[in-house]
Amino acid sequence: VAQTELTDTEIINKVLHGEQALYAHLVQRYQQYVFTLVLRFTDNREDAEEISQDIFVKAYRALADFRGESKFSTWLYTIVRTSCITFLRKKRLNITSIDSERTVKELENRDSGFSANAMEQKSRHAMVNAAIRLLSPDDTQVLTLFYKGEQSLEEIGRIMGLEPNTVKVKLHRARHRLKDTMEKHFTYELKDLQND
Amino acid sequence: MSSRIYKTINHLSANLQNWSDLYITDPNIKRMNTGQTMDDRLWDYIDGNCEPAEKATIEELLAANLDWQRTYRELLNMQQLLDSSELDAPSLRFTKTVMEKIAQHQVAPATQSYINKNIIRGIGAFFLTMILGFVIYFLAQVKWVAPTSDDSSSRLLKSVPDLGLENKINTASKALNSTAVALNSTTIILTMAVVVIMGFVWLDMYLQRKKAQSANS
């Protein structure tokens, strides 16, 4: 069996039995997911890269604790979340809901740079990514885990320590806010897309 | 405060829903009026999270109602945009750097293998003893004042034959007060803090030893 065809659990078992090099397959498999999630928390590629690397090292050290009760990705994203929250606490950023006045202010400050950037890049991907980055860390995390991380509502609940129904409500709200953000900042691009 | 407002709004909206049943007789409008917003119902439909009955209702509404059709198209666009959003890629050296970093580490033994229930119980007992100690200390701080002569309870006591209990209570109260004075000194508090810290140091050493033993075996 080619090493790349091995499932996550098979790779983990082999790594636990001393085949350390196989861990590289897990890193390659999940590096983009982890990096994207972290980048949406940090807004800085250098910080995101360093935190993502630390996350994989932490995951490696704690690999024996992965009992296979959930997907490896779900377990890994739990480490991502705790690492990102620790980073934000250190940076003294507010990670509370978007409703708070302070967060809205922070988002408005972040807004101009991103929208200018996205205006230059006319691509659809850049626009969505830029709009997602204008949301609060919690909203971006729910959206990224649901749409890119291949996680169900139950799995996102496990990662974020919430009930699936609460995750569902958070997802609805995050999509509402994304829609509002796009209508507010990317009106022309949205019209172009609709005309396409 | 915010949860109370949320509950009130929920309660009001639930009542409004029931009141609307009284005057809305058109089945089409009733079907539209479930308490959830149109967007939320459509998102559930798009995500495949709705019950078959709800799915059928939404399909009927989509076939007949222009508003629902327009919103559905908007949400589908949004869904496609979200699906098409790309993941960010880290630098090309990412995997190599991680592998270099983990070369300096070992997989730690599973938590279950070195955390034994007796240790958890021991920690629990340690904290319970500490709490008990503090409760006794604070009780000792209380000043046991004898009731005044016009107090109703003292009047009641007067009617009870004198068994010499008052003297005994006074003696006990004095003893407690002297203990409180002794415990109140800074030296005692400092000693207690040192004992607590030493307890933690000892516990840490014990866990480290256990961890090393399990790693060797």
Tell me, briefly, the overall form of chain A: elongated
Spatial separation of the terminal alpha carbons of chain A? 45 Å
Distance between the termini of chain B: 55 Å
Spans of chain B of at least 5 consecutive residues whose pLDDT stays below 50 are 13-24
Most extensive interface, chain pair and sizes = A-B, 46 and 35 residues
**Per DSSP, what share of the residues of chain B sits in E-state strands of 2 or more residues?**
under 5%
Query: Can you write the helix and strand succession of chain A as a string?
Result: HHHHHHHHHH
Q: What Rg of chain B is obtained from the alpha carbons, in whole angstroms?
A: 36 Å
What is the beta-strand fraction of chain A?
A: under 5%
**Helical stretch count of chain A?**
10
The major β-sheet of chain A equals:
none
What structural class should be given to the helix and strand makeup of chain B?
mainly alpha
Helix content of chain B: over 70%
* Number of DSSP E strands of chain B: 0
Largest sheet of chain B: none
- Mean of all residue-level pLDDT scores of chain B: 76
In helices, the fraction of residues of chain A equals over 70%
Strand-pairing-aware structural class of chain A = mainly alpha
